[in-house]
């Protein structure tokens, strides 16, 4: 039943895509990212049972869809990660040139995180600030020097 439903889903996706490049025209949308994230592993991975993979390969427009997204957004050949491209093999200082404000951004993100945690602590009641009042039950700390002066 599961394979039958999956085959039907693939067939419906193929019909919906038709001859378009992406599901909603000439530019990708979030649906394209979602569908590609499910189809690409099914198309490219070696599976012990290839029934569903064979059905996907028989739907030529979905295969072309995956291939075009792979070539458009993942241009390196054969799964080599982009870190092995000539851009990353330059001098050690190239990382600093990539983002000159990296340290500032890191510090800012740490400060934002700290403020968020403190805000949560105050709002949830984990930490509270009490002001000393002059009311009948209020305790006010007296410094040791002041105490001696009073006597």
Structure description:
The chain is an all-alpha fold and 151 residues long. It has a domain at 1-74. It is 58% helix and 0% strand. The chain has helices at 2-17, 30-44, 51-58, 60-73, 94-98, 102-124, 144-150. α1 packs parallel to α3 (51-58) and α2 packs across α4 (60-73). It starts with a helix and ends with a helix. 3% of the residues are buried.
What are the main properties of this structure?
151 residues; mainly alpha; 58% helix; elongated; Metaxin_GST; membrane; Glutathione-S-Trfase_C_sf
Number of strands: 0
Structural class: mainly alpha
Oligomer: single chain
Radius of gyration, in angstroms, nearest whole number = 31 Å
Sheet having the most strands: none
Shape: elongated
Helix content class: 55-70%
**Would you tell me the overall average pLDDT?**
78
The percent range for strand residues is: under 5%
Order of helices and strands: HHHHHHH
Distance between the termini: 91 Å
Low-confidence stretches: 84-96
Continuous helix count: 7
List the topology elements.
Blueprint: H1 2-17, H2 30-44, H3 51-58, H4 60-73, H5 94-98, H6 102-124, H7 144-150
Helix pairs in contact: 1-3, 2-4
Quick gist of this model?
By secondary structure, the chain is mainly α. Helices cover 58% and strands 0% of the residues.
